[in-house]
Amino acid sequence: MDRLKQLTSHFTRSPKPWETKSPDDVVITLAIRSPLCKSWKGALKDTRSDELLTSMLKATISRMQIPPGMVQDICVGTVLPKSPGYEARASALAAGFPETTPTQVINRFCSSGLMAVTTVANQIRAAQIEIGLAVGVESMSFNKDEGAPPPSEEILAHPIAKDCLHPMGWTSENVSNDFSISREDMDVFAAISQQRAAHAASAGLFDAEIVPIEAFQKDPATGERKRVLVEKDDGIRPSTTAASLSKIRPAFPQWGGRTTGGNASQITDGAASVLLMTRRKAEELRLPIKARFVTTVVCGLAPRIMGIGPSIAIPLALEQAGLSKDEVDLFEINEAFASMYVYCVRHLGLDIDKVNVNGGAIALGHPLGATGARQVATGLAELERRGGRVLVTSMCIGLGMGAAAVFVRE
């Protein structure tokens, strides 16, 4: 018998931490998003940020298969609203959540939606709540990005702190210059994003993640707003090629001139929701489990090259989860700028056929607070379609940070 064990031992292995299941696991039972629409021009341009959030929460209630009163906390990731706490609480009440369901707001720039997911997951892990809702939302049409406020003299005198004040376009040009990312490479990757998104949209691949939401449309003649149902993304440009992108004028010629309006993320309005709970609770309620939340890692780096954040955060997240990059089925990396996208894929040695397979922010847009949650909805829907196991989502974060998270499909 002992000899038999010796002979067969090399055929067996202990399960890795991410493969084991526990009643205390934090799981996702719903991950959905609104259509993503061009700011100032698209279908959501006349919809206020509080109205967009209310509509997203209504759509979430209609699909989460539990009474809204069972949600013990709502965390809203958003960046631009001047009074986000007011909007979060009032929108939740208007959408149909009872007054007993509290709300909170989180802002870590481009990762805010993912930070909302992480905050709720950590509350569940700490046994503070059993069920929580994470929402990412941004109306960039309604709330203008006014940039940094006037800085103190001490900040201006600090060689690194003062870099936080520069526009994000400057950081994109720094990445392209410092790491020899050519304009041609950036346009090629941008065209791939557009072509993949166009294929996904025409093939109906986004149907599993997009929920129609109620919005408003202004009559140009009278100024009167009427309610409409928005059902599809409107920023994708199907005819885009690298050749057509090469003809677009540089957006920041003063810093290098490789970044353009065609190879950077679109300014967009949108929202997304992720419902999380313990595995124990999901099984008790007989809810379908889409995936398990494993971990999120956030890192800091020089603000001047903030775009390379995913290249630091992804390895840290994989190490924490006990995974190799080859065990990951899909990566969702936010395409803030093609410069950082090209760099991260090349530096990490990623298979491009596993990264942003249905396009990314260059084609779909980057509603700042929504993107982190949107990537979860997009990634999990595609993971299910492919029968894969592991999803990694990641993004660079303005001011010099990066984030990455790991999810395992059931």
TrEMBL record:
It comes from Dacryopinax primogenitus (strain DJM 731). The keyword Cytoplasm does not apply. Coiled coil: none annotated. One of its GO terms (cellular component) is peroxisome. Pfam families: Thiolase_C, Thiolase_N. Pathway: Lipid metabolism; fatty acid metabolism. This is Thiolase. Belongs to the thiolase-like superfamily. Thiolase family. GO terms for molecular function: acetyl-CoA C-acyltransferase activity. The active site is at C110 (acyl-thioester intermediate), H366 (proton acceptor), C396 (proton acceptor). It catalyses: an acyl-CoA + acetyl-CoA = a 3-oxoacyl-CoA + CoA. PROSITE patterns: THIOLASE_1, THIOLASE_2. Residues 288-408 form the Thiolase C-terminal domain. Gene3D superfamilies: 3.40.47.10. CDD domains: thiolase. Keywords: Acyltransferase, Transferase. Residues 26-279 form the Thiolase N-terminal domain.
